[in-house]
Amino acid sequence: MRVGTYALPLSLNLAAIALLGLGCFSPTLIKLFRGQAQASELHEDPPELTDHFRRSEFPELPAQPRSEIQSIILPSMSAGSGSLEPGTVEPLASTAGTFLGMKDEILLERMHSVQVVHAKLNKGGSSVSFRLDFADGSRAAFKPEQIHPQTIPRKEIAAYRLNRLLELNAVPPATGRTFHRSELVDNLPPDMPRLARRVNAETIFDKEGFTRGEVSFWIPVILESGLDKPEHLADWQRWLTAGESIPSSRSHLMEQLSSLLLFDMLTNNPDRFSGGNLKMSDDGRMLFYMDNTFSFQSEPQGHVKCRVALAHSQKFSRSLVERLRRLDMISLRAAFEPEPGILSETEMSAILGRRDVAVAYIDRLIASNGEERVLVFE
């Protein structure tokens, strides 16, 4: 039985999916990307990391020259080169945080230890994902290690930890947990044997029948924000342009969206605008930064989708930008320490490279438009 340290899989040697989902952005970008594909530059994890994933590959896609894309967000320094020197400002301190008014530590303790009494396989998507009901009445989502390369559970935990380090409190609390096959399969609806067959076929169990994965707090009610729909894209892109006004009723949501674009750049999440990944609370006031299991590929410059999405915002949170400037390897290691092994040193270093790219972009905006028109959210 595996407990404690999260078992890191080797990175899958994949080519990234072509620029799907961004076609609804500006006409210039549609013209630029139509019919072209961008090959991802995924790294190979260090050999000491344990491989619990079966290797598979997407079809190789033709590479698109980055020179055109870099004109959108072109860093003035080499990403990850140390141009934003760690140690020149006080390092960040990791914070526990809250979620929907509840302390993270309470939610994490429940998800980490309480007995499962019911399991349900979530509908939609190609990945294996459960809703677990616990004996104390609480619930969690669970994604196990599985054969699907787009779902790497440890990365959801890493996204949660990084989110709290930046004091955003928008990723549902997540932690690693090991289950035996019986805890999952035996708690599925008995009248639906096909679900058990799918779990057995697609979940990676060890020889003793255990699987490691991540449990996340189950949000009772979530709604589609619609911010990735064509009819809303033009509005928020205009509102997030330097010098343009934002309706007072939308200011809070626009601040969260702007921070989400920055966060996705840090985590290198190219999947946000692929459809269904921009969820919000039932009152429409809070965006949830969910579904991060395809993040943290080791591209110090960031995936082209992330850079293009970031370029659609010219307004940012002053406090978040300050926290980005203070981000360093010391604070990253401290943030991830409670869940050993969720990111490799290479993956953490790439976060700092993408931070350099994002901060350089913001600094150029400030030089062109003035700080008061760029750092508009406090």
Please explain how this structure is put together:
The chain is an alpha+beta fold and 378 residues long. The protein has two domains: 27-95 and 222-374, no CATH class; 98-217, Phosphorylase Kinase, domain 1 (2-Layer Sandwich). The protein is 34% helix and 11% strand. The protein is built from 13 helices and ten strands. It has helices at residues 27-33, 66-70, 104-113, 154-165, 181-185, 193-202, 230-239, 251-267, 304-310, 318-326, 329-336, 345-369, 371-374, and strands at residues 98-99, 102-103, 116-121, 130-134, 139-144, 174-180, 210-217, 223-224, 279-280, 287-288. A five-stranded antiparallel beta sheet has the order 3-4-5-7-6, with helices on both faces. Strands 8-9-10 form a three-stranded antiparallel beta sheet. A two-stranded antiparallel sheet has the order 1-2. A hairpin with a 6-residue loop joins strand 9 and strand 10. Helix 8 (251-267) runs antiparallel to helix 9 (304-310) and helix 8 (251-267) crosses helix 12 (345-369). The N and C termini lie far apart (47 Å). Mean pLDDT is 80; it is low at 7-89.
